[in-house]
Amino acid sequence: LPRRRTQREPPGEGEKAAPAAAAVRDAGGLPAAPEAIPAPVPDETARDPLTGCFTRRCLEALSLEPPCAVVFIDLDGFKEVNDTLGHDAGDSVLAAFGAVLRENLKGKDVPIRWGGDEFVLLLPATAGADAERVVEGLRRAWRESAPDTGNLEVDFSAGVAEWRGGPLEAAIKEVDRLMYAEKRSRKARKKWEEVRGRAEPF
Q1: CB-CB contact of 20 with 151 (8 Å)
Q2: What is the pLDDT of residues 131-181, one digit of tens each?
Q3: Burial level of 11, CB count in 10 A (0-12/13-18/19+)?
Q4: Which residues does residue 110 pair with via DSSP β-bridges, in sequence order?
C-alpha cells in the first residue's frame, strides 16, 4: 500500500539514518514513518481485543508533537450488517477493518477504536494532503479484504485535518464534523446515481 511522509526530521546525534530501501514505502515514493509509538502503551489496558487497535486510553500515554494529521472514520453500512446478519457478522467486519488499519499503518501511526464502528487515526509528521492519500489507500485495501456480507456493502466515510497545536480534542471534534459532512455527501451521491440508473432507457 502506498505510504508517505513529506515532513520528517533528520536523524539526531547518535541516530542512524534509515536505509534508502526502507525509506520509501511501496510504489508511492513517500518517506517512511518513524519507527515507534512515542511512549509505551500497555496492551492489556489500551488495546481493543476485537480490532487490535488502541482504545482512547492510549491518549494518556502519547506525547504527540505537531504537525500531526488526524482522521475520523465511520463505517458506512455497518448497522445494516449488524441488524440483518447478526452481531457475529458485525464483529467480523470490525475485526477485519481493524486488521486493515494495523497492517497498513506504520511506525508512529496510531489507529484507535473510538467506539462502536468509529475509528480515529493519528498520523504524526504527516501533512493533510498526505493523510488524504493514506485514507484512499486504506479504502482500496478495505475493498480488497472486506469480509463477505452478501448484498450489504460496508464502506467508510472519513474526515481529515492537520493538527498544528492546541487541544487535540478540538482537532478530533473537527474531523468528526468533516466525516459527517462527507457521509452526507456520499449518501446524496449514491441516491443520485440510483435515481439516474432508474431513469436511463433500456
Answers
A1: no
A2: 999 999 999 999 999 999 999 999 999 999 999 999 999 999 999 999 999
A3: exposed
A4: 122
The rounded distance, in Å, linking the Cα atoms of 42 and 6 is 30
Residues sharing a CB contact under 8 Å with residue 41, sequence separation 6 or more, in sequence order:
47, 54, 58, 61, 62
Among the listed residues 162, 27, 48, the one whose alpha carbon sits nearest the alpha carbon of residue 97: 48
Please give the pLDDT value at position 60.
Answer: 84
Report the side by side order of strands in the sheet with 110-115.
110-115, 118-124, 68-76, 155-163
Sign of CA dihedral 184, 186, 191, 192: positive
Residue 67: asked if its preceding bond is cis (omega within 30°), the reply is yes
Most confident of the ranges 56-65, 80-89, 176-185: 80-89
